Amino acid sequence: MKKYIFLLLISVQGLFAQVEFEAKVSKTTLGLNERLRVDFMMNADGDNFTPPSFEGFRVVGGPSQQVSQSWVNGRSSFNKSYSYFLLPTQKGAVVIRQASVEINGQIYKTNPVRINVTNAVELPKDPNNAPQISADDAIHLVAEVSKANPYLNEPITVVYKLYFSYNIGITNQRELNKPKYNDFWSQNIEIKQLVAEDGTFNGERCRVVVLKKVVLYPQKSGKLEIEPLSMDLDLQLPTNRRDFFGRVQIVEDSKRVSAGSKVITVRPLPEKGKPADFSGAVGKFAFKVTPSKTNLKNGESLDLKVAVSGTGNLKLFTLPKPIVPNSVEMYDPVHNEKVNTPLSGMNGEISDSYTIIPQFKGKYPIKPMAFTYFDLGSGTYKTITSPEIMVNVLDGPTAAEGAVAENHSGVSKMKVTAGEQFQFIKLKTKVASMHQKDFLGSGMFYSLLFAPFLIIPIIVMARKKKEAIDGDVAGNRIRLSNRLAKKYLSEAKKQINNKELFYIALEKAMHNFLKAKLHIETSEMSKDKITEILLSKNAQPETVSAFINLTENCEFARYAPASSGAIQQDFDKAVAIISELEKQI
Question: Which sequence ranges form a coiled-coil region, renumbered to this chain (predicted)?
Answer without folding.
Answer: none
